[in-house]
């Protein structure tokens, strides 16, 4: 908290007049000038709420980010202005410092020299000394020689200015036909194959399935089929299995989108792959489009270091919105993540992943039901699945599958010796359970507790509160 009397007076005035934009701007600038960086950032953010497109406020916020070494956040704040010609030169100098902090010396040099050429008063000898030397002047091609693009990875012709946000390593892919590598399937499982999770299944029925199954009823209220649901919870709790079962329950196509289906080394190709995947789902509607580990595709843009990765998030948001209100009708978008707090907040806007559904670890009854499903195609003696469920506290579905697999392996060795299949019994499962430890719940709970108790100003994680404070874990 700043202890300067003048700053305290400004803060008090801003508290009594929160909508006074000049006062907010002046207070933020004074805080920045005196090195109170976190407070300056907060004031600049408050000022941006009053004037979202003000370049001076955005530049001040970016400078606060740079001085706190949050270089990706600074570039994200500046990017909308830097993309337009004639941006304020001060922004170019701030962008140069941010790019240099991210290791892009060539891009930083371009931004700095462009800014100083338009406003020499912004010259910074210390910054200039740290920048890469200017590129050699372009030589025109000899007669009869083709005009090759250079340098590698940027695709800029001779004499054209350097494009700063294209990182040196990627290469732009040539234009081609957009085609998704994800495959369309028809899952054989339904909600009957998902043990427990009744509240989760009911949420999916109301949000995703019933609008397709009873379109007339929902149309009476102006509701169409389609939409998005974000499933989150500890690893191994059955989020992917639940998504497949939702498609099977509906009798719809199912597209399981992996990272390899989207991410590509060529700049622009990842966005094309994402667009092609959505187009494939629209051609096969009704369709459940499932993105596992979605935090890798929808991470917070302020945390990203390169502009082309932020463009992938922008493309994802645009596809969720669709080109018109009917574009995604009949396309049910499900996504799963173990780390929902790392996903860009724009994805939680209504019309996108506006419903977050917590997939909890199974309780005792659900664990017993999971064990019954896992063992139903195996030779069994009389089984007490409830007894096994009671000794597998904090086990998720993946852990329980590991218990059954170990019991089967042990029983196979006995069957080989006996020369015939021996039925599996309750002691076999209990013995296997003693050799398996829960893999994920405790670690995930420790992380979730930090967000629920200390970073839940928006109330996004209220659903976890009973599990954190109510003793369910």
Which CATH class of the largest domain is shown? Alpha Beta
**Terminal Cα separation, in Å?**
38 Å
Give the biggest sheet.
6 strands, mixed
What is the helix content?
40-55%
Number of strands: 6
| Order of helical and strand elements | HHHHHHHHEHHEHEHHEHEEHHHHHH
Number of domains: 3
Q: Report the radius of gyration as a whole number of Å.
A: 28 Å
Strand content: 5-15%
The CATH architecture of the largest domain would be 3-Layer(aba) Sandwich
Report the principal-axis shape: elongated
Q: The CATH topology of the largest domain, please?
A: Rossmann fold
Strand order of the largest sheet: 1-3-4-5-2-6
What does this structure look like?
The protein has three domains: 5-130, Tetratricopeptide repeat domain (Serine Threonine Protein Phosphatase 5, Tetratricopeptide repeat); 184-358, P-loop containing nucleotide triphosphate hydrolases (Rossmann fold); 364-433, Helicase, Ruva Protein, domain 3 (Orthogonal Bundle). It is built from 20 helices and six strands. It has helices at residues 5-16, 21-33, 37-50, 55-67, 71-82, 89-101, 105-118, 125-130, 198-213, 215-219, 239-250, 259-262, 269-283, 307-321, 364-375, 385-390, 397-418, 426-433, 441-454, 465-469, and strands spanning 184-185, 227-232, 253-257, 287-291, 331-337, 355-358. Strands 1-3-4-5-2-6 form a six-stranded mixed beta sheet, sandwiched between helices. It is elongated.
